[in-house]
Amino acid sequence: MSALGKLAPWIVFAILLAIAPYIFTSGTSRTMLSIMALSIIFALSYNMLLGQTGLLSFGHAVYYGLGGFVAIHAMNTIIRNKYAIPLPVIPLVGGAAGLLFGVIFGSVSTRRAGTTFSMISLGLGELVASSALILRTFFGGEEGVTTNRARLAPFFGYKFGSQVEVYYLIACWCLVCVVAMYAITRTPFGRMCNAVRENPERAEFVGYSARMVRFIAFSLAGLFAGIAGALAALNFEIMNTQSIGAVQSGLVLLMTFVGGAGTFIGPIIGAVLVTYLQVTLSDVTGAWQLYFGLLFIVVVMYSPGGIAGWLALHEPLYRGRQLGKLVPAYAINAVPLIVMIAGGILLIELAFWALVKSETEGPETSIFHVAMNTHSVWPWIAAVVLFFGGAFGLNRTWPLVQDAWGSALARIREQPA
Amino acid sequence: MLEIITFSTLNGVLYGMVLFMLASGLTLIFSMMGVLNFAHASFYMLGAYFGFEISRRIGFWPAFILAPILVGIVGALVERFGLRRVHKFGHVPELLFTFGLAFVIEEVVQMIWGKLPADYRVPPSLDFTAFRLFDTTYPAYKMFMLLVAIGMFVALLVVLNRTRVGLIIQASLTHPHTVAMLGHDVPTVFMAVFGAGSALAGLAGVIAGPAFVTQPAMAALLGPILFVVIVVGGLGSLAGAFVASLLIGLVQTFAVAVNGSLSDLLGPSAADWFGDLGTVSVAQIAPIIPYFLLVLVLIIKPTGLFGTRES
Amino acid sequence: MTALSLQNVTKSFGQMEIIRGVTLDVPPGERHAVIGPNGAGKSTLFNLISGRFGISSGSIRLEEQEISGLTPYEINRRGLSRSFQVTNIFPRLSVYENIRCAVLWSLGYKYSFWRGVDGLADARERSEDIMERIGLAARRRDQAGVLTYAEQRALEIGVTIAGGARVILLDEPMAGMSRSETENAVALVRRVTEGKTLLMVEHDMGVVFGLADRISVLVYGKIIASDTPQRIRENAAVKEAYLGQAAH
User: Fold this and answer.
1) Residue A344: Cβ within 10 Å count
2) For chain A, what is the total number of helices (H) and then of strands (E)?
3) Which has the closest alpha carbon to A40: A241, A160, A177?
4) What is the dihedral of CA B227, B232, B237, B239, to 10 degrees?
5) Distance in angstroms (rounded) separating the CA atoms of residues A170 and A41
6) Inter-chain contacts counted by CB atoms under 8 A, chains A and B
7) Cβ of A349: how many Cβ atoms within 10 Å?
8) Contact C18, C11 (CB under 8 A)
9) Cys bridge to A383: A347, A367, B108, C18, which one at CB 3.0-4.6 A?
């Protein structure tokens, strides 16, 4: 591959980062873009553990949160003492905190691998989250700790008060971190992470301590999570115990897994998608957390490689120019699939309204812009019919996809190499 | 003083036994199937809520029988239609499936029963004082809970040591692959074990619901402690689970009772030296003591107290 | 200086004594085979030498240095490498990646996360060389998991020797191979163990008698004979141990 070919994806990425706020210009959109950019760093840091080294952590938000809290206290200290430290440097403070705690907790956590490691990460996460409510001066109790980023010393004239300015700061850090994390995968250490993931015993028998590899991976993951946390701190100008707890840890797991833990780009896709859903869904429906859980389960059951994994499956067909063969089959299957999803959503929304909202707001509501009465039996019947009808239809049309794949793969095998 | 010790011991043992009811089901499922069921505490919660609903409509004693059975059926269905599909992808997807399941169950419970605690009461037939000691009364319901827990423990011992099924389960604790090769209908066995384990969790929920609070967060509060018990006791060890459950139950209960703080010990200057840590009371940190125990065990004996199996 | 020396090594698992006092001296450059009936403890012996299990008593010396009690990676770094009876490679990494992972430590790169691995010329050259020698250069980009069985066994040997270990332990390298595959594998083993010390467990007597300078016979955790192939063939005790065993 030519040098330009190798650089192309990075250039495209940088350009997308640069022009995004001018395509999506509303205040909410720009905030969402900022959250996406820092979530990308957070999710990629998580994938250093999950996808690269095979470590499933349920407590990664600890390093994100601690990075954010240290950063926010640093900002307040700088403001109070009027130090000449500008805002763009603050993520380094978060990163240092993430690295420090990664080293401390990692020395204990990485003694074990596999399921035990996951349980330890859960326990440690709970430990820190619970401690946060006790150590009120550092963690600010229920209200959290606030700051004002515009009160730091200006950086080449910029005070970063507006959302656009903060976005570009976050985007620059995002680019730097993404490049750095990718580069790390292309080092001896990065390669041995994959080896330890694949076969830790064999890695030991070629001279590497699996525990040391995991420990370094854990510490570096903490470093980048801390940077993401610091960026969150300066974006929201507030940190509270939410950012350090189990929900945040679950969220980054969701992003990484749904995006695809087996590829480098997967967590990026996941971070963008999940952030988008998080911001938009909560306006549209009260049951958005349930949808997240169901999305997660569906991905685990039907595509454990995530979105990127599913896309990667098509690579041989793309190279063999047989992708077109799949289009008709996919199009036909899309119909019952959409029907089934519509039915499912209708069912959940009706149930949610009937159970949660109808006591306070009455039985009338509107779903998909159609007025419905949850006390009437018709919407429920419609939902059930749509859901099971769609599922049944999908069951019948799915063999078309299998056939299309089979014939496409057969054609590729026949092609001259 | 003696009063505090006596009642704390009773309560600690009770709490520990409830933990063991959960930990034993979890260990059995893990030993046979290799999957750590993140949703185990969620089945506990379902047991409490099913118990609550059935108690409300029919009565406590029917609930005592029916709720665990219902939860067991839910567990079997989850295994048959969910976990079985994911089994071929490996242990990480299995763990993630149960993780997602736990989350979904919590959301559904919240949707149906609301966020506030449910008014699950001790049944009138058991709502009296068992005995009186040093001016404090001890409720009969808690003695009932203790009885059920001990009964379950004894039944488990008998099943494991005296029945054929029990021998197979014991074998699977140390040699899961060999058991699969013994010619048993493995998928059905898995479904039965998962269902039985879930039913045990449901039973714990039915009886614990009136005594501890029944709320949608109960699974999320108990879940991590349950996993600490498993790791501290040693993955795959029932004896370890028993010891760790009692240990954590007693330590946490005593910590709440003690309620001293460093400033009581060292005087007001403790706050200057230790900041928040100086004024926080032992009772306040009681919820996180299990996690300290986890870290301690990990440093001293990483395989857990009784553990020998690598996961 | 002996390359590998075992002195009265024992190993018990609970009450069961598997290795009951093994003494063995392998001089440098020798090709030494360990044979014996099933259950004699041959794989256990390998696991003890390579550090997978700890010994119950006795001593194991690699080039005069005590290695019993060390972790597998510590032993590997001192110049001993082993292969596995059940293929133990990195399934989702390519053939090239598998080999490269095996050379990195020996080239001194350790846990470096600041140097690009693709730019390391010595790692690349060494990996290319190993792949040529095991005959898998054409399959360099393929995932290890999709290779044929014989190719995976060759890769297994490649990963074992890639780090430049001076003492090589091969655990049933020809296991499960057809006649022609075995012949190729024997030639491969002979090629790649030139100038190294080889300790090999094998059941195929043809391979053993063709490849080994000396043979030790392990029966119920003890070595009952240790001699040249010709004398082992004539040894009465050995014949008795194998009585009733069909030649492979």
Assistant:
1) 18
2) 19, 4
3) A177
4) -110
5) 10
6) 124
7) 22
8) yes
9) A347
CB B260 within 8 A of CB B281: yes
Q: Which residue in this structure is represented by tokens 């109960």? A: B218
**pLDDT single digits (tens) B155-178:** 888 887 888 877 777 776 666 677
Chain-chain contact of C162 with A206 (C-beta, under 8 angstroms): yes
Of the candidates B173, B198, B152, the residue with the CA atom closest to the CA atom of residue B18: B152
Banded model confidence at residue B310, pLDDT cuts 50, 70, 90: very low
Q: Which amino acid type is present at position A276? A: Y
C116/A183 touch (CB, cutoff 8 Å), yes or no:
yes
Element (H, E) at C59: strand C57-62
C-alpha dihedral sign at C237, C240, C245, C248? positive
Alpha-carbon gap, residue A407 to B238, rounded angstroms: 52
Residues in chain C: 248
Distance from CA of B143 to the nearest CA of A (A): 31
- CA–CA separation, B94 vs B91, rounded Å? 5
Q: Is A370 helix (H, G, I), strand (E, B) or coil?
A: strand
**How would you class A355 by CB atoms within 10 Å of its CB: exposed for 0-12, middle for 13-18, buried for 19 or more?**
middle
Tokens at A197, concatenated: 């993931």
Tens-place pLDDT, residues B188-245: 878 888 999 999 999 999 999 888 888 888 888 888 889 889 888 888 788 889 999 9
Q: List CB contacts (< 8 A) between A194 and chain C.
A: 90, 92-93, 97
Nearest Cα of chain A lies from the Cα of C119 at a distance, in angstroms, of 9
SS3 C40: coil
Q: Which two tokens stand for residue C141?
A: 């980009």
CA-nearest of A327, A322, A379, A391 to A353 is A379
What was the ipTM of the complex prediction? 0.89
Burial C102-130 (b: 16+ CB within 10 A, else e): bbbbbeebebbbeeebeebeebeebbeeb
